[in-house]
Amino acid sequence: MKTMIVDTASSAASVALFDHKTLIGEFLLNTPNTHSQKLMPLVESILEMLHLKIRDLDLIIACEGPGSFTGVRIGLSTVKAFAQPYNIPLITETSLTMLAAPFKYYNGIIVPIIDAKRGEVYFGEMEWQEGQFIKHREDVEALSELLERLMQSYPKKPILLVGDATEIYKEIIDSHMQNHPEMNVQLADENENIPKASHLGFLIGTDRAHLTYHDVKANYMRKSQAERDLNARRSNAF
């Protein structure tokens, strides 16, 4: 069983290929180039090096967001185009899960945080329990409010923050930790903040329902800034 996993929700783009549950190849580019420039060369290169074609795939897993609106659209449009002619089943999962999933042996709450601009973050509250990945919550919230709520919700558990927002809002996090030394917060290493397609490999062989290309939808969690500005202008007009 061959599975391809694609992620374009952040500035990084990555493609991974699995044979059953074994990772056999992964390409990642964490560069400013647009995903329209990066994604197809990555896909073509990894397939060529592994002597595979799209029709050989048994499953495609894609990151549905949140993150870059344009990046998410490019990634999902691409995998839908791959799946349609060969009726390849699809699974989608959030970019927050992708960031949290590799910390299988972390004994605490994993909180992926992605910059949503203006002091807000897309976040998740997740953990591994006896080999099972558990999602408690995913949403968008002001980082300062999130940190306060985490302190109240998980007073006795260590908390790991991972994602680009740990670097972008480091001053807010440091200030909160100084004011609340009783809170057991750890920050992931810089390279662990880069999402990788292979992190969703744990979904292979699970009972997750498969989708057709018709069913695949982006998960933006909120409207784009352009849409919010337009709605605000419309409201102000009345």
Automatic annotation (TrEMBL):
Protein name (record): tRNA (Adenosine(37)-N6)-threonylcarbamoyltransferase complex dimerization subunit type 1 TsaB
Pfam family, one: TsaD
Domain Gcp-like span(s) in chain numbering: 34-205
Domain of life per record: Bacteria
InterPro entries reported in the protein's UniProt record: ATPase_NBD (IPR043129), Gcp-like_dom (IPR000905), T6A_TsaB (IPR022496)
